[in-house]
Amino acid sequence: MRVLLFIAKVWVLDMASVIDELYSVILDRIARRPPNSYTVSLIEKGREYIARKVGEEAIETIIASLTESRDRFVSEVADLIYHLLVLMAINNVSPDDIYKELRRRMK
C-alpha cells in the first residue's frame, strides 16, 4: 500500500511539474511574442475568444470521453488543460493558485 501511495505522489508531483513548465512556456510566449506562436495568436484574439476556446475544448473532451478512444480523450484533455492555462495566464492566475484551492477543498 505504501508503495502505491509513493508512486501516486510521484506521479502527481511529475504532473504538477509538467503543468508548471507549460505555464512558464505560455508566460514566456506572452512576454516575447515570437512570430508563428499559437499562444500569441490566442492572446491577440482576446480573453473572450480564449474563454470560448476553453468551452469548445471542454465540449470536445466530454464527447471524446463518451464516444471516442482513450487516446483521443487524452488528446482532448491535453488541449483543454493548455487552453485553461492560457486563460489563467491572462487572468493572472497561476497553477499554484489552483493547487492551493484544491488543497483547501481536500480538508
Task: Write up what this structure looks like.
The chain has a single domain, classed as MazG-like (Helix Hairpins). It is 86% helix and 0% strand. The chain is built from five helices and no strands. α1 crosses α4 (70-90). The radius of gyration is 16 Å and the shape is globular. Its main location: cytoplasm. Its EC number is 3.6.1.31. It catalyses: 1-(5-phospho-beta-D-ribosyl)-ATP + H2O = 1-(5-phospho-beta-D-ribosyl)-5'-AMP + diphosphate + H(+).
Average pLDDT across residues?
Answer: 90
The ordered string of helix (H) and strand (E) elements is: HHHHH
Which structural class matches the secondary elements? Answer: mainly alpha
CATH topology: Helix Hairpins
Termini Cα gap: 22 Å
Low-confidence stretches: 4-8
Total number of distinct structural domains: 1
Fourth-level CATH superfamily = MazG-like
CATH class categorisation: Mainly Alpha
Extended strand count: 0
Query: From the 3D coordinates, which CATH architecture would you assign?
Result: Orthogonal Bundle
Into which percentage range does the β-strand content fall? under 5%
